[in-house]
Amino acid sequence: MGLTNNDVFKKLRVAHKLRDTDIIDICKLVDFKVTKSELGAIFRKEDHPKYMECGDQFLRNFLNGLIIQLRGPMPKKEK
After folding, report:
1. Residue 78: inside a domain, yes or no?
2. Binning pLDDT at 50, 70 and 90, where does residue 69 land?
3. pLDDT of residue 1
């Protein structure tokens, strides 16, 4: 069985030593609102009653925000 989006998100969180507030700030960079309670639900174990699956859109927005945080925003193209 492969990795789920939740597994990928957890591994990125540990690898980059991110706290909940860091993740919220990263998501704000791409105008994606997320709450601490949503993050708590995503990082729970699968058998927990309040577990929430990390969807593709959630992970995509986080990754785009992480790119902006690490590299900076894309430069504007000149015509």
Report:
1. no
2. very high
3. 65
Residue 77 lies in a domain: no
What global pTM score does this model have? 0.85
Number of domains in the chain: 1
Residue type, 72: G
* Residue 28, domain extent: 5-71
